[in-house]
Amino acid sequence: MDRKTRDILEILENDARSSPEDISALVDMTPEEVQKRIHQLEKAKIIRKYKTVIDWELAGEDYVYAIIELKVTLERKQGYQGIAERLYRFPEVRSVRLLSGEHDIALTVRGKSMKQVAFFVAEKIATLEQVHNTATHFVLKTYKENGLIMEEPEHVKRLPVSP
Predict the structure, then answer these.
(1) Predicted local distance difference test score (pLDDT) of residue 76
(2) Average pLDDT over residues 48-77
(3) Among 7, 15, 105, 147, who pairs with 70 as Cys (CB 3.0-4.6 Å)?
(4) In Å, what is the CA distance from 105 to each residue of 7, 36, 99, 134?
């Protein structure tokens, strides 16, 4: 991959709404060349999706997120792929990742309440034949999501020092 393509990808990853005109000024290409390169990247499935990061709490929607770590037994001839495919089909599952270390797979799950997430894990995930152990970690606060700081730090005003 050449440097200009990598730069285009990094710009779009940082801000998917960047226009070909804006990108062209940064990578020394014409807007038409940028648009053509983006189209090629989409066709090759290097660019998989354009995503918006939403602060659901600020929007007034309460979602609960949890990270679920799983220990699994592999299925014959399918390895981790088979269990991963089964897991990512659940609409509550936002991500599925293969891990190194104590657990094999990590899921990110979203629900409307802790109870809903707990029931999902107990009824849908823990009951799968390949799953031997689960560890659920509820997300209490998200400080950064997809490279974006979700909450601006408060500026602390210094109090005057008196003699």
Answers:
(1) 78
(2) 91
(3) 105
(4) 32, 38, 5, 10
Between CA 100 and CA 87 the distance in angstroms is 18
Asked whether residue 156 carries a pLDDT value surpassing 70, the answer given is no
CA dihedral 93, 97, 103, 108 (to 10 degrees): -30
- pLDDT for position 78: 80
26 burial (CB, 10 Å; 0-12 / 13-18 / 19+) is middle
Q: What pLDDT does residue 162 have?
A: 66
Residue 89 DSSP one-character state: T
Separation CA 70–CA 98 (nearest Å):
10
User: CB neighbours (10 Å) of residue 35?
Assistant: 16
Coil, strand or helix: which one is 145?
A: strand
pLDDT in tens, 122-151: 999 999 999 999 999 999 998 988 888 887
- Cross-strand partners of 138: 66
Nearest to 130 by CA among 89, 58, 78: 78
Largest CA-CA distance found in the chain, in angstroms, rounded: 77
For residue 24, give both structure tokens.
Answer: 């062209």
